[in-house]
Design a protein that fits this description.
The protein has about 180 residues and is α/β, with parallel strands linked by helices. Helix content is about 45%, strand content about 15%. Helix 3 (about 55-70) packs parallel to helix 4. It is globular, with a radius of gyration of 16 Å.
């Protein structure tokens, strides 16, 4: 078992440019200290400089960092594309092992909107439409796990508000100095 009855685990999944990182950062900004942000891109691309593939080392690292943070008493927001076929087993075990409240969200953005949002990113000149089409998976939901689907029409502030309320994070004290 991992975490405590008090800890919250929030899993944010979705395709590239769906708003996962912005939502995660917004939740952390609202909550303050005591909430760990575990980002797939940071651990996979920055720490390990690894490609996303089944059985890759980042899957275990993501799991370890999330579990360590929960055991240390932190709430955790775990965010990333986190393809169901690559990360599903790890995410299902993590959810099952967490003693506290766990909430899963899938940010669903149609492919055309993904292209438009991607065009505003710093990597837009390095990653094009061809790569985005290869990566895009329509509603890649985890089998046997309930995930709340939030569509592209939900504004950033509204999405953050919803998750803060759904998870109970809005009512919990942070560890501010």
């Amino acid at each position: 078992m991992v975490g405590t009855e008090r800890t919250r685990l929030v899993i944010l999944r979705g395709n590239s440019a769906s708003g996962k990182s912005s939502v995660a950062a917004g939740i952390r900004d609202r909550f303050g200290r005591g909430l760990a942000l575990v980002g797939q891109d940071n651990l996979r691309r920055v720490v390990l400089r690894e490609r996303d593939r089944p059985g890759a080392a980042n899957i275990g690292l993501i799991d370890t960092v999330a579990r360590y943070s929960l055991d240390a008493g932190y709430h955790v927001v775990l965010e990333g594309i986190l393809y169901a076929d690559h990360y599903g087993t790890m995410l299902t075990r993590l959810r099952a092992d967490h003693r506290g409240s766990t909430h899963g969200y899938y940010l669903h953005v149609p492919f055309e909107e993904t292209l438009a949002r991607h065009a505003t990113k710093p990597i837009a000149d390095k990653v094009g439409e061809r790569e985005l089409r290869e990566w895009y998976r329509e509603l890649d939901l985890l089998p046997g796990v309930t995930e709340t689907v939030i569509d592209a029409g939900s504004a950033l502030t509204r999405t953050i508000d919803r998750i803060m309320l759904d998870t109970g994070l809005a009512a919990l004290p942070s560890l501010e100095d």
